[in-house]
Specification:
It is a single chain. The chain is of the alpha+beta class. The C terminus is likely disordered. It comes from Blomia tropicalis (Mite). One of its GO terms (cellular component) is endoplasmic reticulum.
């Protein structure tokens, strides 16, 4: 039997079995290459077509942190484990025999040949590319099993966003998530967490400054618009912040600050330096600590828990200081005696700021009887110094202790006051300090503070009112040519009783020019207010105070006792103010000559005025009574006589001053609100003065005690003491002689300077002295750049943004300030917010409806009516109280209205009285929304300031618009930028080249109630609007000036300057020739070359400017040359222009 076939068969079977076993023991590289050959495998084709590929996912966290609170971001280093089945990579072995096959370890090169799901972290910042692509950073490794399962591990770093709960910071709980999302749609790829341990981390894993609480796993489908659902996995880690860092850096130090502040309980009240140093150190440390903590957080518009904690120590400090002031009483009360010569003498007379002469109580009167003649005692308890008035030099003579009365003009009918019942307190200015405890004394006029110029003064006393007499008025009266009837109430021919600022009205005065027209027709300005102005009948003198007052009607008084009201007396070319007192009827009539003079000034044929205590003042013009001119004696009111266009009258009843306050006449609530605010400011300023007085006294007393210890005080006292016999020399001619000699000396030096400046000289060190002076002057007081910042008020208006901190010094001021803040922010601000929403919504909606109407008279009428209504509503957002003067000069169709520019609310203020077509710079944001809404309803012109094409097209559109008389007048602000309402800068000539009629308008704001200036480089428009809505009010005056036209032969620049001068004069603004765009741009090279040329002309120069410089200078525009001639001239005849050169 032949067994060879069977043997061969068995051998072949054995060989085949052994070969198969060797092949299936390992997944070799040859197998991988055969499986991924391009002919049989494509990485762009999904493993399955009938259903989605399931991707099993897990995460391994390697490191967490740091966490950035300012960006709300965290950094995590992790491994992403992915697994799926690709049957194309499986061998021919069954699944049960998988354990017999060794998987294939693949590197990145192998994995790039396989199909991979497209995944990315959806909450990463920035978004990473495809996690498994070759461009994605990180390491990637994998394994392929015999059944076709692909396992890939991606090691990478992710920066994710994590929402921060700032309100609870640092006590917040964070929820930081890792979101893994598929780029392919859900029908192709489905992501799921593995069932065993989807999130793992090493045992020594550190969460940084957080405690791990829990983690949450989510798997969901997310849909995008017009795309479809996608699969996403999300792991949320719940973390709580560790407080150890904050305990060491914030909480513990703040507790120590509070404990340190308790030491103020043991600090004596007069020891002001110790308390101030302690408070400042504590507050500065609080601020620094709070700022360091907040710098790490994103900007938020609400308070977080750390702010609350930081406020508590600050509030505690304030409570400590308040309790200190209220409940701790000094153990001793010391009184010091000083001679009167120490207070009023030749050396310090010009430094006296305020004085008070009042009645003393019985106890003080008894004490004063025991004091030496001319002595003063200081009561440390109330901080007031009392002077025994026994001998004081005045213009009326000497008051002595031997007489029991103060002798004054008997015509006034003043009562007799015993001298030993008068109290005198004195305050000196900051430039003068006495060694003794006498600084910070006060002068009151009708129980209101009075700022008074330095100079010689005389004192007077009446039962309820006190007044002062500046000697320079009497000096002018002796030199003038007025008749004796001008001074009906006088003791001597050379002196009249003059009251400058009785009662509260002086706080409302800002600027006053008093003018009388003499028979020769020359207008004379006859009175000055301020230490630097002098009296001259041929010079213009401006009365500088707080509020503008136009005085055009001046009465002459009858020969009878005057005991009520306030008025001015004139006779041709002399003018004084008279002070009356109430309770007796007053009749004011016009003498025949004075009435004729006034009627000629007012251009009327008949004028009569009578005043009684019961009814007020009644005025008739041309026989017609003016009912609106009747004064209510129960409250102060102001009326404008509309029928007399060239004159404005302001009259009040009682001992209050007449003034034209910036109040609205349409609603009584507006005037009542403004009046009460003025009274509140008055009271606040009174309290501030008392606080400053007390601080100055404490500071001076400490300084004196330190000097006494050093052995210097006695020497200084002896140098300042002057005998009683020399007191009258302060009112003699010696001081006047010194003033005249000083003026003469300055005159000689000025003449010499002018002669030297006209001579040519060689270049030496002295040639640059003038430029050095101008440079230093520019550093000290730059008159240009300060126009681009909010001007600080001299008096506190109870607003925090004025950088005054008086509410920390007095409990009463603190109560007023807190009450005002609550009123403004929690009552007025919500109401104004609702009004703003209604106004803006109404504007946008009605403007859209008007835009649908075809152009024509109906559309113009609707826009005219609606625009005035819009802006009247919007003006109530900031409680606008607007006074319009000379409304007959309003702009008309075809004309151009030009005004000085302070802020965008200028548009709303002018629109409340008329409708305009606006021309201005394009804006974005909220202001841009309003611009686009207005442009849809009317022909407004918006342009880009720095685009030449826009500027050229604007000129053409202005010309076409002004030629159509049916269109609205154009409103332009030629300055091109916002100025802080203290000056008027260069007008651009574009609007003055059109040839249309120009209607000038002057706008003047009262910054006491709220500063309307918009510093666009510092605040956005929304923040600016909020500041306006939280101010007290926006009070302003608007003057419509007569229309102006370009004269024959007058250039556009000259015409613009002429209009600017009129606006500046009417609004009481400083006129500057500088371009307002210096706020944003550098000085033009042409201006620098003009300065170089003028300097070269002032010295003997042998070199000649080359053709290039000559050509550059010759190409200077007319506007630039005109500006240079106005604002950079260095001629000796124009001192004001020298100040401009500094900039």
């Amino acid at each position: 039997m032949d067994y060879r076939p069977q043997v061969i068969t068995l051998l072949l079977f054995h060989l085949l079995f052994i070969r198969n076993v060797r092949t299936l023991d390992y997944y070799t590289d040859d197998v991988f290459e055969s499986k991924t050959h391009p002919d049989v495998y494509s990485p762009n084709v999904y493993p399955k077509f009938e259903k989605a590929v399931t991707i099993n996912t897990s995460l391994f966290l390697e490191h967490f942190g740091p966490y950035d609170e300012s960006k709300s971001e965290f950094v995590v280093r992790l491994q992403v484990h992915l697994s799926w089945i690709d049957e194309r990579l499986a061998t021919n072995q069954s699944i049960d025999n998988n354990t017999l096959i060794v998987p294939f370890e693949a590197d990145a090169a192998h994995l790039m040949k396989l199909w991979r799901p497209s995944l990315y972290f959806s909450n990463s910042n920035p978004l990473n590319p495809d996690l498994l692509s070759a461009k994605s950073p990180g390491l990637m490794m994998g394994r392929i099993e015999a059944n076709g399962r692909v396992n890939i591990v991606k090691r990478t770093t992710m920066t994710g966003s994590c929402k921060l709960n700032i309100k609870l910071y640092p006590l917040d709980v964070l929820k930081c998530s890792i979101q893994l999302e598929s780029i392919n749609a859900d029908r192709y790829i489905h992501l799921q967490w593995i069932s065993s341990t989807p999130i793992t981390m090493p045992d020594e894993f550190n969460w940084g400054n957080f405690h791990w609480i829990d983690h949450i796993l989510l798997g969901r489908r997310v849909s995008y618009q017009h795309v479809g659902p996608f699969s996403r996995l999300e792991a949320i880690f719940v973390l709580r912040r560790q407080l150890g860092y904050f305990l060491l850096t914030t909480y513990a130090p703040s507790v120590l600050f509070v404990i340190s502040s308790w030491t103020s309980f043991w600090v004596h009240i007069p020891a002001a330096p110790a308390r101030v140093a302690l408070v400042l150190t504590t507050m500065l440390t609080h601020v620094t600590s709070s700022k360091a903590a907040n710098d790490k957080l994103p900007r938020a518009s609400f308070i977080h828990s750390l702010d609350v904690w930081m406020m508590m120590p600050s509030s505690k400090d304030n409570v400590n200081r308040t309790r200190k002031q209220l409940f701790q009483v000094p153990f001793t009360q010391t009184r010091y005696l000083f001679q009167i010569d120490t207070f009023i003498n030749e050396n310090n007379l010009n430094h006296i700021v305020r004085m008070e002469l009042s009645m003393c109580d019985e106890a003080d009167s008894l004490r004063m009887k025991t004091l030496p003649s001319g002595s003063l005692f200081y009561n440390e308890e109330n901080g007031i110094a009392y002077l025994c008035v026994q001998r004081i030099a005045t213009q009326f003579g000497t008051m002595t202790a031997n007489s029991t009365i103060v002798r004054y003009p008997q015509d006034v009918g003043l009562p007799l006051i015993p001298l030993n019942h008068l109290l005198l307190t004195i305050e000196y200015d900051d430039d003068y300090t006495l060694l003794n405890d006498n600084s910070g004394f006060e002068l009151y006029i009708s129980d209101n503070q009075l700022p008074y110029e330095a100079g010689i003064m005389a004192l007077g006393i009446v039962p309820d009112n006190r007044f002062i007499v500046p000697a320079n008025v009497a000096e002018w009266a002796t030199r003038g040519t007025c008749h004796s009837s001008c001074f009906q109430y006088m003791e001597h021919d050379e002196m009249a009783i003059v009251s400058i600022f009785p009662s509260t009205g002086h706080r409302s005065l800002r600027e006053l020019t008093l003018e009388v027209t003499a028979p020769d027709g020359m207008a004379r300005k006859v009175f000055a207010w301020g230490g630097d102005t002098s009296i001259d009948n041929t010079e213009e003198i401006v009365f500088n105070a707080k509020e503008r007052l136009n005085v055009n009607c001046i009465y002459s008084m009858s020969n009878r006792s005057i005991t009520g009201g306030l008025d001015a007396i004139t006779n041709e070319n002399c003018l004084v103010w008279m002070h009356y007192y109430p309770k007796i009827e007053l009749e004011a009539c016009l003498s025949s000559y004075s009435a004729a003079t006034i009627m000629s000034l007012l251009d009327v044929d008949d004028l009569n005025a009578t005043m009684t205590h019961d009814d007020g003042i009644h005025v008739t013009v041309q026989g017609e009574p003016l009912e609106q001119f009747v004064v209510n004696k129960d409250r102060m009111q102001t009326w404008q006589m509309d029928k007399l266009a060239r004159s404005q009258y302001s009259v009040i009843n009682g001992p209050q001053i007449a003034h034209c306050a910036s109040v609205g006449h349409r609603f009584f609530i507006h005037q009542f609100y403004v009046t009460k605010l003025i009274q509140l400011f008055e009271y606040g300023n009174l309290r501030v003065a008392k606080v400053n007085q007390r601080e100055n006294q404490n500071r001076e007393r400490k300084r004196r005690m330190s000097l006494i210890k050093e052995g210097v005080a006695e020497k200084e006292i002896k140098n300042q003491m002057i005998s009683d016999s020399d007191t009258d020399s302060a009112y003699g001619d010696e001081l006047e002689f010194d003033r005249n000699s000083l003026k003469e000396t300055f005159g000689r030096h000025r003449s010499a300077s002018l002669r030297l400046g006209n001579e040519k000289h060689h270049l030496d060190l002295f040639a640059v002295a003038e430029f050095a002076r101008l440079g230093m002057q520019a550093i000290v007081d730059d008159e240009v750049t300060k126009r681009f910042a909010a001007k600080e008020l001299k008096t506190w208006n109870l607003l925090t943004r004025t950088d005054k901190f008086y509410h920390y010094k007095s409990l009463r001021l603190a109560f007023i300030w807190w009450t005002g803040m609550i009123f403004r922010y929690f009552i007025m601000f919500p109401i104004r917010g609702v009004i703003s929403i209604v106004g803006v919504s109404w504007l946008i909606s009605t403007a859209a409806l008007i835009s649908l109407i075809p152009d024509g008279s109906l559309k113009r009428w609707l826009y005219y009516s609606a625009s005035i209504m819009w802006f009247r509503i919007l003006s109530r957002v900031f409680s606008g109280v607007i006074t319009y003067h000379n409304p007959e000069n309003r702009a008309r169709g075809g004309g151009i209205c030009v005004a000085n520019h302070t802020s965008p609310i200028d548009v709303a203020i002018l629109h409340c009285d008329n409708s305009y077509a606006l021309v201005g710079q394009k804006h974005g944001g909220f202001l841009g929304i309003l611009q686009r809404a207005l442009a849809r309803a009317a022909d407004h012109i918006w342009f880009e300031r720095f685009e030449m094409s826009d500027r050229l097209s604007v000129s053409k559109r202005l010309k076409d618009h002004s030629d159509d008389k049916q269109k609205l007048p154009i409103l332009i602000f030629p300055e091109g930028t916002c100025i802080n309402n203290s000056a008027v800068m260069m007008f651009k000539k574009g609007s003055f080249e059109v040839g249309a009629t120009i209607y000038p308008v002057a706008i003047k704001y009262d910054a006491r109630f709220g500063d309307p200036f918009w510093n666009s480089s510092k605040y956005g428009y929304i923040k600016y609007v909020i500041m306006m809505m939280t101010s007290w009010a926006i009070v302003c005056d608007v003057w419509y000036l007569p229309p102006m036209n370009r004269e024959e032969g007058e250039s556009a620049i000259e015409f613009a300057n002429r209009v600017k001068t009129e606006i500046a004069n009417k609004g009481g603004l400083v006129e500057l020739g500088w371009d307002g765009q210096l706020k944003r741009q550098k000085v033009k090279p042409e201006w620098v070359k003009q300065q170089q040329l003028k300097f070269s002309q002032s010295i003997d120069v042998t070199e000649v400017m080359n053709d290039h410089h000559t050509k550059a200078d010759s190409t200077t525009t007319d506007s630039d040359i005109d500006t240079n001639e106005r604002s950079t001239s260095v001629s000796q005849d124009d001192n004001k222009t020298n100040n401009n050169n500094n900039n």
